[in-house]
Amino acid sequence: MLAHLIMGDGFFYQGTIMLCTKSFSKEEQELLINALQENFGIKATLNKRISSTGIQSYRIRISKKSMDKLVVLVKPYFIPEMLYKLGI
Predict the structure, then answer these.
(1) In the chain, which residues have pLDDT < 70?
(2) Helix, strand, coil proportions of the chain in percent (round to 5)?
(3) CA dihedral in degrees (86, 9, 7, 64; nearest 10)?
(4) For residue 2, what pLDDT is reported?
(5) Which of 45, 2, 72, 18 minimizes the C-alpha distance to 10?
(6) CA distance 67 to 55
(7) Each residue of 34-54: pLDDT tens digit?
(8) Cα 43–21–81 angle (5° rounding)?
């Protein structure tokens, strides 16, 4: 599921991965962040974003310190054309 989420709604940015999860509530995103930490030891935070129209939303940012662990976990499920989203 995580590999699919990154391939579809993720992007590599400054050594980390951002997940475009603004369609989820802040509470739902916090649940996902907690699940990533508890199940996989992957640290992530909410990244507040304000659109050009002033609408506030959040997305999930994977910690740079967790990138190696994340890549090992999801790379086997990635199609080669999407590896750029992992920065590789």
Answers:
(1) none
(2) 50, 25, 25
(3) 20
(4) 94
(5) 18
(6) 29
(7) 999 999 999 999 999 888 999
(8) 85
Classify the phi-psi angles of 68: left when phi > 0, otherwise alpha if psi is within -120 to 50, otherwise beta: alpha
The structure's pTM equals: 0.89
Amino acid 27: pLDDT? 96
Residue 8 token pair:
């579809």
Pick the CATH number of 2-66 from 3.30.470.20, 3.40.50.620, 1.10.287.110, 3.10.28.10: 3.10.28.10
Tokens coding 24:
């989820």
Domain boundaries, the chain: 2-66
